[in-house]
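haha ok so turns out i had the wrong file open the whole time. this is the CORRECT one, sorry everyone. sequence first:
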Amino acid sequence: MSDTYKHEPNAPSVAVSDPPGPGNEIPVSKFEVVPYGDSTNEKELYSFRELMPKPVEPDPAKIKSQPVPVNKILIPAASLAFLAFIAVAVARLFQPAPLVSYVDLGGQRFDPASLSGRLIAKWETSGSYQLFLDPIGQQQAANFAALAVDPPRQLSVTIRLLDDGGRVVCQKQIFFPPPVPRAADGNSAPPPEPPLGPPLQPQQTGAGDTIQNMNGESGQIAEIDLRGPLPCPQKDFAKFKTWDFVADFPTPAEEVEWQRQEKLTAAKSHAAKGKPSVHIARLSASIEGDDVIVGDNPSHGTVQTSAGRVFFLGEGGMRNRTAAWQVFPAAIHFRCDKNGSCALTRANSPVVMQARLVK
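then structure:
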């Protein structure tokens, strides 16, 4: 049997060779069982739990209302800005065009009648226009004022509204009221002096247009203002880019020629037993139609038609005829007012011939 023995750890070592005796006793391990389950000891043992903060349960409503942290955003801010730009661009693309209610189309000239004009187009509940007619210069001012007071025939103006490609979008023809009939014997009374002072009362046409003569600084009529309905749909107002016009106004040269011819006719009528050599027809109403010129009489300044009508062109009118107007037969379209003043046109000529209806 060996002299070695086992002992508990942490026990002091005793040499084997030392004999047993006082001070050399071998320590004996002792285990003490502590009783478990005492309620007082357990509460003290776990008392630290009372000092720990209790977890707070999250409120679902607050979770939904809280903003998402920046680091949780999946779409970068630059992408959001780009998407917003695209959305605005698409909205503008499909947004209806704003309503155009006032279009100032500026001024234009019609040199054959020595006129200038300025046109304004408007849209309220329907289309309307304002047209201002003036003489081109001071040299034409006196003749313009005389025509406004006592025109030799019914006047008219045709306005055309064009798009940026020069295409006609809308047009309108404006007829002035017929002039006051002149003397029934064919003589032309001297035209009255242009009125001075306040403007004349506005005139109304059968188509609903208003024509107003306006006095200038000198007291003579210096401008004619026209306004009335414009037969254009609302969608076309945005297309208006420019305009032009033509006017059935006698030129200054034509006005002088008419006065000379009427004086000559009156002189011949007194020389031939008081009867006019050329009798100008007076009508109860204006007429319009088609006819064919079959011959002319240069010495009398007249042309004859297949329907028996005789138109007086005068010496100047016969001399200024273009080649197209000297070839017969010539199909024409005529329009005459109650005073017998007529405008003759034909399909293959842009020239409008001014004439008087003899019979």
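DSSP finds seven helices and 15 strands in the chain.
again sry for the mixup
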